[in-house]
Write a structure and sequence with these properties.
about 210 residues, mainly alpha, two-stranded antiparallel sheet, 10 helices, 2 strands, about 0% strand
Amino acid sequence: MLPTIEEAKRELETAGKLNPGPWVQHSLNVGRAARNIAEKVPALDSEKSYILGILHDIGRRVGIVNIPKHVYEGYLYCSAKGWEEAAKICMTHSYVRMQEEFDFEPSTVEEREIKKYIMNCEADDYDRLIQLCDALAADYGFVIIEKRFVDVTRRYGIMEDYIKGWDKTFEIKETFEKEMGCSIYDVLPDIGRTTLLSPPPWKGAVK
């Protein structure tokens, strides 16, 4: 079960009032990227992809949070609404390497719950699509993956195994491009212009 596009947008608007910030427009752009790519992939539903993209960061509604916190809060929120597919995306979107991300014993409640979920979860094309689109959408538009990686690194710093995650994202990109028969960048409007923009990183992010 999923909300309609209109309901998802209203949820994001409400969340943006609770915690204003560029993450709201980023979420809309993730949805747009997911929809545009899905339109070129016969096995994917473009409307479903759009909704999942809009809601992937909905856990940020609780305030300025770190990666595990917003992942888990989004999962709890969507689960309570009965949106199990969206809840799964909230869990998987920040862990592109899935089970390989958790070769350690987490120290926080959120991370322990996330690990438990991910270790028993199999990523499908929708998980991989939103993971990819999260690396294509800034708040100010679409950018090439390399630019987005730099943007995120400026906010959070270099984390262990970042490069392995980047490699996995490029692998996902290449897989979708084979199915699309074109570059993902061909379906992202104005990407050439927005990639050249250099706004400062988001403020308030924490590790």
